[in-house]
Amino acid sequence: MELSSLTESPSDALFDGGALSGTDERQAVRLWLRLLGCTHRLEQALGQRLRRNFGTSLARFDYLAQLQPYPEGLRMKALSRRLMVTGGNITGLTDQLLAEGFVTREVDVNDRRSHIVRITPQGLATFERMAVAHRQWVDALLAGVTEPDRQMLHRLLGGLAKSLDALPAD
């Protein structure tokens, strides 16, 4: 499948009204809408699968995914930054995962205003089961994109990320 047809569907007209034209003054907005539409569809599909197969949400999966490589834990503020959500969202997720035994939360001995969150052995085992399924689902969702197109898309989006990172803060 060609990369350009990855998102072709009847709902695309709602997002961008058709093909991207090099001379169209709305090109940047149309590209952004295409990226947003693809992201939304992928998140929706993964979220549905996580709910159906594990009774959890994509937000909870992402939370555990951020903690998994850090057995020493992360400060809640760092976790909030990594997940790009508010502190209130992190607190709510932490409370839920704490109640289920998936994480621990302790006051940071170096900064009593901060809390460190760690994934528990139970949380790690649960996350690892979900991660195996998640990888399979992502592979299936992207199966229609050829390997060369995947590599090109990864490279192009990496360039976009660098350019966004270089923008001055408002």
TrEMBL record:
It comes from the Bacteria. The keyword Transcription applies. InterPro entries: HTH_MarR-typ, MarR/SlyA-like, Tscrpt_reg_MarR-type_CS, WH-like_DNA-bd_sf, WH_DNA-bd_sf. Gene3D superfamilies: Winged helix-like DNA-binding domain superfamily/Winged helix DNA-binding domain. Residues 28-162 form the HTH marR-type domain. Keywords: DNA-binding, Transcription, Transcription regulation. This is MarR family winged helix-turn-helix transcriptional regulator. It comes from Hydrogenophaga defluvii.
